[in-house]
Design goal:
94 residues, mainly alpha, two-stranded antiparallel ribbon, 6 helices, transmembrane helix, membrane
Length: 94
């Protein structure tokens, strides 16, 4: 009988675990925010930078002036745009 009282199930938590983390503190939002403050800040910064990138990618993206054309006319239009973007062997950005 003495051995039975000393052997405990591995699924039972020790009293020291309960003292370390009170039940009401494990699930509170403030605890989660404190523990993951760095990750949440990095996620917010990443979302902000992605939003700025997408804004400029859409607004400064190449406008398709050949969108109404089809077939050979569209190919020739794209070829002219490519020729215009390269001047004197150097790529023109603006």
């Amino acid at each position: 009988m003495v051995l039975d009282s000393m052997i405990t199930s591995p699924h039972r938590r020790s009293p020291s675990f309960r003292k370390q983390f009170p039940r009401d503190e494990l699930g509170s939002w403030s605890t989660l925010l404190q523990r993951h403050r760095f990750l949440l800040t990095a996620l917010a910064l990443l979302a902000f930078l992605c939003t700025i990138y997408l804004y400029f990618a859409v607004t400064l993206g190449a406008t398709e002036s050949c969108s109404g054309l089809t077939g050979t006319k569209k190919t020739l239009c794209r070829l002219e745009l490519a020729k215009d973007s390269v001047g004197n062997g150097k790529l023109k950005f603006f």
